[in-house]
Amino acid sequence: MRQPAPNRYDRMSYARCGRSGLDLPRISLGLWQNFGGSSPFENAREMVLQSFDRGVTHFDLANNYGPPPGSAESHFGRILHDDLADYRDEIIVSTKAGYRMWPGPYGEWGSRKYLLASLDQSLKRMQLDYVDIFYSHRYDPQTPLEETMSALDTAVRSGRTLYVGISSYGPEKTREAAALLRAMKVPFVIHQPSYSMLNRWVENGLLDVLEAEGVGCIAFSPLAQGLLTAKYLNGVPTASRAAQDGSFRKAMLTERNLDNVRALDRIAQERGQSLAQMAIAWVLRKPAVTSALIGASSFTQIEESLGALRNPRFDQDEIDRIDRHALDGDLNIWAAPSQSE
Q1: How far apart are CA 279 and CA 101, in angstroms?
Q2: What is the pTM of this model?
Q3: Residues with Cβ < 8 Å from 231, sequence gap 6 or more?
Q4: Quick check: 186 and 152 in contact, CB under 8 A?
Q5: Rounded-to-integer distance, Cα 89 and Cα 84, Å
Q6: Please, which pLDDT band fits residue 231 given cuts at 50, 70 and 90?
Q7: What is the three-class DSSP state of 87?
């Protein structure tokens, strides 16, 4: 079995997740893209193992990550079993259920039947007895919130998960979920919203709710699916997400967005950072944000992202200059319009 780097914890900083007892690395690795069955397994394995060597202890999944759905969990379970089994107690594994996973009326959203069945399937794919965090992946307007939160309660009491979280809920539904879970004495420790310099919806109430409730925040898509990198400054690369026209819509590449990205890139250069590094550091500047959740297609990209921690501070002049260009770019494709924001 592979031996991880002995100095791994010296190479990462950690933060407490809200008012819980759980610490998370300031940068966590998400397995949404490039870890499933359509991607080379050895590359996925290298990214996970090299990240662990750098002190990244939190690996974030969901039932539908792939493609095909479920395959990212299967690959990650194989890596855990073959390479990291002796280090399971040093690793935070999170997964989610909410988006469509199988046909019929019980394969998506927030019912008790779907959430608990999905969690059982996730545990089987990952060859685990429990996960550390289990999320409701999205708010379900057709299911009573009490039912969805009760399923999370059962997941904890049955030993399938240690903590629970929610993702992409608006401020008011987050407050309601927190009250329900508190009454059930369920360890609700984390919210996972999208958040970036071009997608700042969480600043309109959600971060305030999380601070008041003592819930941590892990920001996903801090690089706006690659828009906040140098990737799109000179056109659309053939292998990019925008070229594939999947979750990244080409409509996001407006001239307004690209002009703002170019201006932000200039500020990053003045700070001695890449645009990606500045974007991650900017997200982490908020006290409510515990961790930034990054994706990658190679460890080289992960290593660049980890460099954000070398210069995490901003003076007020930098914040003011960034604010002139960190404007909403219509990037929040995960918003739930039927819930109260």
Answers
A1: 32
A2: 0.94
A3: 237, 240
A4: yes
A5: 10
A6: confident
A7: helix
* Calpha distance 187→54 (Å, rounded): 28
| Nearest residue to 54 (alpha-carbon basis) of 340, 305, 338 | 305
Residue in 151, 159, 149 with CA at minimum distance from that of residue 179:
149
Given CATH 3.20.20.100, say whether it is the number of domain 10-323. Answer: yes
Asked if 220 and 30 count as a contact pair (C-beta separation under 8 A), the reply is: yes
Instruction: State yes or no: cis peptide before 337, omega within 30 of 0.
Output: no
- Give yes or no for a contact between 293 and 261, defined as CB atoms under 8 angstroms apart: no
Radius of gyration of the chain (CA): 19
Domains in the chain: boundaries: 10-323
Split at pLDDT 50, 70, 90, the class of 235 is low
User: Which residue is associated with the tokens 């990650």?
Assistant: 76
Residue 223 contacts by C-beta under 8 Å, 6 or more apart in sequence? Answer: 196, 229, 276, 279, 280, 294, 305
* C-alpha to C-alpha distance for 58 and 73, rounded to whole angstroms: 14
Q: Which residues pair with 194 in a beta bridge?
A: 220
